[in-house]
Amino acid sequence: MTETLVQGLIHALRGSMGKEAIVFIISMIPIVELRGALLVAGPILGVPVAEAIPLSIIGNIVPVPFILLLITPIFAWMKGTKKLKPLVEKLETRAMSKKDQIEKYEFWGLVLFVGIPLPGTGAWTGSLIAALLGIRFKKAFPAIMLGICMATVIMWFVSYVLLGGVHLLG
């Protein structure tokens, strides 16, 4: 599903905007995030690593403060409606099913959760869990930033070294 979403987005945007903008937009999408953006940037779109990394990092960071600061009141409002309540409950249940690592180790758990590129992890889910657990912004935001940096290094290696044919030593 994620692959089809990304392919559809690339196809839809390729004629109307530059490949750098596509990388930026992909990095803001839940589930896909920076991980997908770097996979698309290097091997598929051919965006140079020096451009792809900052675009992906910034795009992945953009939603984080909004999620950390606003998701709790938005969810509370949505729960007050008959149609949106089941959706919110489903999102909360799914996010909270992944809370153990974060709850146990808090800061470092959040760093690892966001930083290790596994299905269901990343800045969006990490921010949602942090907000639902009541982790303060001052603690959650730096942990998520560090996790994004960690994911960047891992995905740079996968996208540009393993898949992109770039050699580490020249």
Automatic annotation (TrEMBL):
Keywords linked to the UniProt accession: Membrane, Transmembrane, Transmembrane helix
Top-level taxon of the source organism: Bacteria
Tagged with keyword Transmembrane: yes
Pfam families, per database record: Sm_multidrug_ex
Coiled coil: none
Transmembrane feature ranges: 21-45, 57-77, 107-135, 141-163
InterPro entries: Sm_multidrug_ex
Signal sequence range: none
PANTHER family for the chain: TRANSPORT PROTEIN-RELATED
Protein name as it appears in the record: Small multi-drug export protein
